[in-house]
Amino acid sequence: MQKLSLDARVREHLERAAASSAGRSAETVYGGHEHALRQTLLALRSGTVLAEHENPGEATVLVLRGRVRLRSEEDVWEGMAGDLLLVPPSRHSLEALEDAAVLLTVAKIP
Fold first, then answer.
1. What one-character DSSP code corresponds to residue 83?
2. Nearest to 96 by CA among 70, 59, 77
3. d(Cα 34, Cα 85) in Å, to the nearest integer?
4. pLDDT digits (tens, 9 = 90+) for 27-67
5. How confident is the model at residue 110 (pLDDT cuts 50, 70, 90)?
6. Cα–Cα distances in angstroms (integers) from residue 36 to residues 17, 86, 108, in the given order
């Protein structure tokens, strides 16, 4: 069994995002290419946008810190710490409305 502190990782990645010219920092905390399930911690500096992209499978975004906006062609959702956003099966983008950290969980469709 493994255990990790998401709070500690969030602090670390928010610092990295603040220092990065891209305004973001990420780490896969569980899974990867050899697994169907992948969980990625993503920290974004306020105003940073992950450009529109495809959904690789079923996915959720758990907001750990800050506020974000998830936008698809049809809808817009805003989330703050503690909110779970269901990622639409269509192209979408994610924007940090303030410094934010999220846990992206993806179950890849075979």
1. -
2. 70
3. 25
4. 999 987 788 899 999 999 999 999 988 877 799 999 999 99
5. low
6. 27, 18, 5
pLDDT tens, residue by residue, 75-97:
999 999 999 999 998 899 999 99
Residues 92, 61: contact at Cβ < 8 Å? no
Torsion from C-alpha of 5, 86, 20, 46, nearest 10 degrees? -110
Q: Which residues contact 104 (CB under 8 A, 6 or more apart)?
A: 39, 40, 41, 42, 59, 60, 61
Distance separating alpha carbons of residues 20 and 94, to the nearest angstrom: 18
> How do 100-108 and 76-80 pair as beta strands?
unpaired
Cβ contact 85:70 at 8 Å: yes
